[in-house]
Amino acid sequence: MSGRIPTLPDLGDVRGKRVLVRTDFNVPMDGGAITDDFRIRAALPTIQWLLERGASVVTASHLGRPKGTPEPKYSMEPVRVRLAELAPGVELLENLRFDPGEEANDPAFVARLVDGIDAYVDDAFGACHRAHASIVGPPKTLPSAMGLLLQREVEVLMSLRESPRHPFVAVLGGSKISDKLGVVEALMQVVDSLVVGGAMCFTFLAAKGYGIGDSLFEPDQVDTCRRLLADAASAGKAIYLPEDIVGVDARGAVATFGRSLPAGAKGFDIGPGSAAAFSDVIMDARTVFWNGPMGMFEDPRFEAGTRTVAQAMADTKAFTVVGGGDSAAALAQFRLDDEVDHVSTGGGASLELLELGDLPGLEALRKAPNA
Ligand code: ADP
Ligand code: MG
Q: Are the C-beta atoms of 340 and 334 separated by less than 8 Å?
């Protein structure tokens, strides 16, 4: 990343100005009701900063995945109601993705968005890896800045890339290695060791010749994992894999296995020995980045490994950062989300920033007229 990204003070005097704030109000909904307003509350510091300085604030966000046309179930109305309670007088535009111009980055849609607007603030980290109209369009013409949420995300994640305290450990899990290959390769450059759980551990175990039964794995990634293991070994970095596995046997009964699974068995969690070993690595680290649950934690029979690792994240003195939607959900499920240093609000965006060191949204801000 090169060049400075303007921050709120770089907007100059905002008194009497209309400021468009791109927020991430993509809140979880159930039957038309918001189940968690965390993302709305998270936007308040930036909104308050602007209001206190006399600006009028217009917020805009996407919600869900409407396909470029209005769909009542993705209406922003429930968010508007909650926002009015938390920050009276703040406007909220309708779901940006109701217009096909948002995802297509259509200049005509950008022109409508910035009509009557004097300045732009991007506080939607979770959307910054997309070159959508509301992210990359307004900074082309308006004085622009990153909001306080986005600023913190960038500072934390870039510090992992550029100046982590060592030992730096990355704990990776989740379903697919192929999804995360880019970030695994980038992390390998900066970490001292890698801890691998989740379904992705089976592709590594298969690469080492262990039996994995019928566990989820990616046959086309076995060679890649073999190469990652060899690269790590020659760089003197450890890749920790589970030494025991919890899952179901061929008859479907829950069982604990060693590193090799018998035919017909399926692994759904790391075993207690592995969870303890992974915790020790986390406790001894000075920086830990965690992405991806250690097992199928949504099922209480297979949550123990993820819970133990989450507890170690809470207990270690290391600087702890968690990225990824499901990992953040797991932390929240265990009520440990306040016990780590930073939970990223952007799943894909956090991985992409770690991998590439830049995002389309940040690049756009760096080129703003006031930058
Ligand atoms: P994140 O959103 O944190 O990046 P992912 O989306 O990559 O995480 O992966 C999360 C999913 O991986 C969860 O739904 C979890 O159930 C699943 N998962 C983890 N371990 C296993 C496993 N051993 N077998 C099947 N699914 C798994
Ligand atoms: Mg996920």
A: no
